[in-house]
Amino acid sequence: MVFETKNKISPNINDYNIDSIRDDFPALSLECNGYPLSFLDSGASAQKPSKVLERMDHAYRNEYANVHRGAYTLSQQATDNYENARKTVADFMNAKSSDEIIFTRNVTSAINLVAHSYGRNFLKAGDEVVISHMEHHANIVPWQLLRDAVGIELKIAPIDDAGNFLLDDFEKILGPKTKLVAITHVSNVLGTIVPIKKIVQLAKTVDAKVLIDGCQGIVHEGVDVQSLDADFYAFTGHKLYGPSGIGVLWGKLDLLNAMPPYEGGGDMIEIVTFEKSTFRDAPARFEAGTPPIIEAVGLAAAIDYITSIGVNNIATHENHMLEYATSCLAEIDGLRIIGNADKKIGIISFELDDIHPHDISTIIDSKGVAVRAGHHCAQPLMERYGVPATTRASFGMYTSEGDIDQLADALKYAKGIFG
Amino acid sequence: MEDDLRELYQEVILDHGKNPRNFARPQNANYEANGNNPLCGDKLTIFVKLGADNIIEDAGFDGRGCAISIASASMMTDIVKGRSIEQVDILFGIFHRMCTGEDISEVPSEFEDDIDKLMVMSGVKQFPMRVKCATLGWHAMQAAVRGDEIASSE
User: Fold this and answer.
1) pLDDT class for A2, splitting at 50, 70, 90?
2) B-proximal residues of A, 318-377, CB under 8 Å
3) From A56, A263, A347, A402, which residue has the greatest number of CB atoms within 10 Å?
4) Measured between CB atoms, does A380 come within 8 Å of chain B?
5) Residue A15: its pLDDT value, please?
6) Spans of all domains in chain A
7) Does residue B33 contact residue B150 with C-beta atoms inside 8 Å?
8) Which of A10-24, A65-79, A140-154, B97-111 is the least confident region?
9) CATH of domain B2-152
């Protein structure tokens, strides 16, 4: 297995002050069932640093009003905060313009926005949409709904047994009918880092648009959307140490402005009469109604926090944790890791003997260890590996060797119960 | 917490989980239904041989699930044999109350032995997120005898 980051600028892990980072996250000092909490479910949702919580609290107390409406000071301040958050997100992704950043509810609503607004207006019966075998349900079901509505065909790009994305096979699927490629940046189950840059290059050879589900990927690698040159990139705030209730859809501006609205309502219109309405350009066109105002402020605070630590430093730390955990877990008899891709992030899905993941999760919870058990919203992938469910430990910027030792001990305890 | 855990994962349950009884489709089964837990992807199929007088003459199951759902379905398929559909409804009602920690002091005498056997499952009441595991087989059983094809724990 190779552990790589895009750009290692911190070769010495001692530069990374894990204790001080852990102190920034109040939830990490919780006790769970008499043990220190070992939180290994950041892939489902990450804990929040104090800076995010305090910033949101301050904004609710001192800077709160609805946005884009009032002519009074407080509303102007709330609007400035909201639009500055958009700028922070745009800079974080290296977007050309803040106008390319649409705030959504989460990544699911971002993908559904594209499936509706782009899919139903630019795709027709017989057109092909390519997804991969390791997509989250959020990047499967919207395309199935589109298939049922419009008659597109859904093609599945395969993976190998280790969980590597198979570029050659992907290339063979592409053809003149391919109009859209919708692929995850990183598998939420296997941890595989998908070669999205090569995927975009290949998709362009057949003039297909590309959407990247960046839910897991942006957290661990960041993204430069100009260099990537995809057409859409979606991510969610709560996995990026920000609040729940806010997601981001980045899209190329020309494309966004060619797309009709997804939801209709206030804030997205120019003129409304009972006969017809006209719509504003992106991003307003896709932000009907009162948006997630304070969530945007919290997301910006999370991005500021991550940036202050350094995305690459975080990735380096998480790679060390992945190496450490992989070797710890390898010592446990009967433990089988599912997902051994050449490049992966700090996500380890595994089976332990024939103990069901739900039983494992309940038992190790009694030792203070929080992991995800289930199908991880990726049932076709579970089918691919012939398992109904897996147990998944996923790491974040604050994961320590102590968390992983606690996991390993708890797993041994679970083995003891099942004899 | 660890005492609660030991009560949940006691020997009887581990044994039923590893060596489930009636883990097959009975010959002449005339009703079946799938039980799905969409949260975890577990799937059980319950098979029933229902007699003309609505008496369950035989019952079995197969599928995949956790120790709790398999053990519960295993015990259930033993207990429902010889019972009528109406009696199974009553039994499930009591069992469900047991799993959620509600009062089950007034068990009709005809069910006392069955409920005594099922009491090993009562530890699940300390684990609210696992109640659906314990009741999955029962939901599917009800669906089967009613002629529905699919039951969901949701």
Assistant:
1) very low
2) 355-359, 362-363, 366, 373-375
3) A347
4) no
5) 76
6) 13-32+310-417, 53-307
7) yes
8) A10-24
9) 3.90.1010.10
- CB half-sphere exposure, A130, CA atoms < 13 A: 24
- Give exposure, A43-54, as e/b (b: 16+ Cβ within 10 Å): bbebbbbebbbe
Residue appearing with tokens 């190329």: A252
Helix B131-146 and helix B85-99: axis angle, to 10°?
170
- The pLDDT tens digits of the residues spanning A300-350 come to 999 999 999 999 999 999 999 999 999 999 999 999 999 999 999 999 999
| Per-domain boundaries in chain B | 2-152
Look up the CATH number of domain A53-307.
3.40.640.10
3-class SS shares of chain A: helix, strand, coil, % to 5: 45, 20, 35
The 10s digit of each residue's pLDDT in A167-213 is: 999 999 999 999 999 999 999 999 999 999 999 999 999 999 999 99
The CATH number of the domain covering residues in A13-32+310-417: 3.90.1150.10
**Between A33, A366, A389, which is nearest B40 by CB?**
A389
Residues of B in contact with A374 (CB under 8 A): 39-41
Question: What is the least distance, in Å, from the CA of A380 to any CA of chain B?
Answer: 11
Q: What is the ipTM of this complex?
A: 0.88
